[in-house]
Every structure is written in structure tokens, then in C-alpha cells.
TrEMBL record:
Keywords: Acetylation, Cytoplasm, Fatty acid metabolism, Hydroxylation, Lipid metabolism, NADP, Oxidoreductase, Phosphoprotein, Prostaglandin metabolism. It is found in: Cytoplasm. One of its GO terms (biological process) is prostaglandin metabolic process. The gene is PTGR1. This is Prostaglandin reductase 1. InterPro entries: ADH-like_C (IPR013149), ADH_N_2 (IPR041694), ER (IPR020843), GroES-like_sf (IPR011032), MDR_fam (IPR045010), NAD(P)-bd_dom_sf (IPR036291), PTGR1 (IPR014190).
Length: 329
């Protein structure tokens, strides 16, 4: 008999999440049956989408949604061997029972020098988000200027580096001076702290006096409104996220950008990374090759202990993380 620890949504978040919104429970798991396997979480992901998802798709008492890298500890499914690792979407659970459906096996050839947590980061959902969201929607060309915000986070850090690989001039905005320094180390041509610039408008203009061809937006709200007038004619905007709005209690009042969109003939397109699920292998192969060649660097912020899941999640929303935020169970 296995006692699983499970984090549940105790109360719907109102504004910024609080520790008291989460509930840690224990659940007895039954013995596995034929066609089932028992998983033990090794690394769990915390991601911004969990905040809007909780509003749209969860009720109080539900297990928090999420992905994890897990070890197969018992198996009655031929394709999954005990001791192998998978990415599972079991939510915030220390142990879970699965039929194997929708599990992604980590290759047995996973390089020992790469932590398995990368399957939740550069070699997982955030990597694919950066890869397809930038290349398919912005279509950056050599010599073009690319703008990205939340640039020191899991997705943004990769977007900027992929922009450099594609020959762009890259401008990144992040929320602290150490993050800005890191972006410069990673090869960003210009990096700015959006919290300390006296005017976002002036900073955007100064960083790219000729304007931006591509904008990968992770933040939305005021940043999006400030950036659109700095786009070049026929610029492309990839609307990936709106983290500045996820904790809003009342909707932000924004100035409609119709005239900018029309006269600049901008393409502004939202996306879900799941759009390219059928091209997952292609994306992971490209990202892995760049990591191996040293062209794509990754960073992780690892929080220790399953009991710290809510802290890691709240830290992510506050901007405590550099690169991908994960929890080691
Ligand atoms: N469309 C899709 O399919 C997907 C969308 N996303 C979206 O991509 C974005 C980035 O996700 P991810 O890389 O995983 O997360 P990050 O690792 O970038 O973490 C979130 C970061 O957002 C920044 N942030 C928080 N609040 C604000 C704010 N008010 N204004 C500006 N920045 C803020 C913080 O960095 P800082 O210190 O710089 O403020 C924080 O570190 C999110 O919006 C997410 O929802 C992610 C995956 C898939
Ligand atoms: C628990 C499984 C979820 C994996 C899919 C995640 C899709 C993320 C899309 C993000 C949107 C905005 O942040």
C-alpha cells in the first residue's frame, strides 16, 4: 500500500495566491492492476498557466493540475519498465497510478550530464512553446529585431536565444538587475529591467530606435500596449501569455490599439503550445541539438521538497525564478 501526498485547491485564488488556498492531503493508493503502473514523482513543474487554469477549469477540492517527471516503481504495462522515467500529467501528486496513456517516456539514452528535470523545461513544454511560438508565428528572419518580455523565465530565456540562433538582434525585458545581467551573458543584445526604467515607452524606443519586427509577448497588459506602437510596419506579435493579468481581481482597462494594428498592418496571434503536439519530436530534437552544441543554454530554479509546491508556485508568479521553476520531490 502506498500513501500518496496530494496538493489540492482548497479555495479559489482571489488575487495573488496564498498558502491557505492550498491543502495537502494523503491518499491511500490501491495495489496496481493489470494494465496499470505506479509512478513516483522526481521533479514537478510549476507553471504560470496553472493560475488562469484554476479559474477556468477547476473547482475547490480538485488536485492542482501539472506535469512531472516520474519514476516507474511498479509496472503491469509491457511498454513501461520499472526504473524507467516518464513525463506524466498527474498533477501535484507524489505518487500516482497510470494506465500509460498520455505518458511520454524519457529515452533510455537520456544523457547523464543533463538533469531529467529538463523534460519539464528546455526539452519539454516550455522549450516547445519558445520554439514553435517564435518560429511559426513570428517567423524571425536574419537581421530582424526581436523583443521578448519575462525574458529570464523558462520560455523567454529560450525565445531570446533562439532569436540569436536565427540571426536576430534581441531585446529582452526582465524584472531585476541580476536577471538583466544574465540575459546579456546569454547573448541578448540589449536587456532592461522593466521595474526600474523610468518610462517603458522610452526604454523600448531607446533599445530599438528602428522598431521591432517580432515581439514574443509573455506579459500582456500595459507592456503589450506600450510595445505595439514600437512595432515596425507588418511586424508580427506572438501572444504567448499574459502573466501581468493572471492575478487581477478586476479586469485591466486598456487603450484599444486598433489604429496601431491597422496602420502598421500588424499580425497579432495567440497560440497554445498544444497546437504543435504532432511536431513534438521535431521540436525536441532541434532543441536538444542546440543544447548539445552549446548554442542554447538553460537555467533552472529548483525548490526542494514536495511540501514546498505552493511556495514554488507563488515564487514563480512573484518572479523569484530564473529559468524554469521546478520542484524536486
Ligand atoms: N501559450 C502557451 O502555450 C504557453 C504560454 N505560456 C506563458 O508564457 C509566459 C511565461 O511562462 P514561463 O516561461 O513558464 O514562466 P516564467 O519562468 O517566465 O515565470 C514567470 C515570470 O513572469 C514574470 N512576471 C511575473 N509577473 C509579472 C508582471 N506583472 N509583469 C511582467 N512580468 C511578470 C516574472 O519574471 P520577472 O522577474 O521578469 O518579472 C516571472 O519569473 C507565461 O505568461 C505563461 O502563461 C507558457 C507556456 C505555454
Ligand atoms: C497538466 C498537463 C498540461 C500540459 C499542457 C500545458 C499547456 C500550457 C498552455 C499554456 C498556456 C498559458 O500559459
Amino acid at each position: 500500500m502506498v500513501l500518496a501526498k496530494v496538493w489540492k485547491l482548497k479555495s479559489h485564488f482571489v488575487g495573488f495566491p496564498k498558502s491557505s488556498d492550498f491543502l495537502l492531503e494523503e491518499e491511500e493508493l490501491p495495489a496496481i492492476k493489470d494494465g496499470e503502473l505506479l509512478l513516483e514523482a522526481e521533479f514537478l513543474s510549476v507553471d504560470p498557466y496553472m493560475r488562469p487554469y484554476s479559474v477556468m477549469n477547476m473547482k475547490e477540492g480538485d488536485v492542482m493540475i501539472g506535469s512531472q517527471v516520474a519514476k516507474v516503481v511498479e509496472s503491469k504495462v509491457a511498454e513501461f519498465h520499472v526504473g524507467s522515467f516518464v513525463v506524466s500529467h498527474a498533477g501535484w501528486r507524489s505518487h500516482s497510478i497510470s494506465t500509460g496513456d498520455s505518458l511520454q517516456a524519457l529515452p533510455s539514452t537520456w544523457p547523464t550530464e543533463l538533469p531529467r528535470s529538463l523534460a519539464l523545461g528546455v526539452l519539454g513544454m516550455p522549450g516547445l512553446t519558445a520554439y514553435f511560438g517564435l518560429l511559426e508565428i513570428c517567423g524571425p528572419a536574419r537581421g530582424e529585431t526581436l523583443l521578448v518580455n519575462a525574458a529570464a523565465g523558462a520560455v523567454g530565456m529560450l525565445v531570446g536565444q533562439i532569436g540569436k540562433i536565427k540571426g536576430c538582434r534581441v531585446v529582452g525585458f526582465a524584472g531585476s538587475d541580476p536577471k538583466v545581467e544574465l540575459l546579456k551573458e546569454l547573448g541578448f543584445d540589449s536587456a532592461l529591467n522593466y521595474r526600474s526604467v523610468s518610462s517603458l515607452d522610452a526604454a523600448l524606443a531607446q533599445a530599438a530606435p528602428g522598431g521591432y519586427d517580432c515581439f514574443f509577448d509573455n506579459v500582456g497588459g500595459d507592456f503589450l500596449c506600450a510595445a505595439l506602437p514600437h512595432m515596425k510596419h507588418r511586424g508580427r506579435v506572438s501572444v504567448c501569455g499574459g502573466i501581468s493579468m493572471y492575478n487581477d481581481v478586476t479586469s485591466q482597462k486598456l487603450t484599444f490599439p486598433q489604429l496601431t494594428l491597422i496602420f502598421k498592418e500588424l499580425k497579432v496571434e495567440g497560440f497554445m503550445v498544444t497546437r504543435w503536439q504532432h511536431r513534438r519530436d521535431e521540436g525536441i530534437a532541434a532543441l536538444a541539438a542546440w543544447v548539445k552544441e552549446g548554442k542554447l543554454q538553460y537555467r533552472e530554479t529548483v525548490t526542494e521538497g514536495f511540501s514546498a509546491m505552493p511556495d514554488a508556485f507563488m515564487g514563480l508568479l512573484r518572479g523569484d525564478n530564473v529559468g524554469k521553476a521546478v520542484v524536486r520531490a
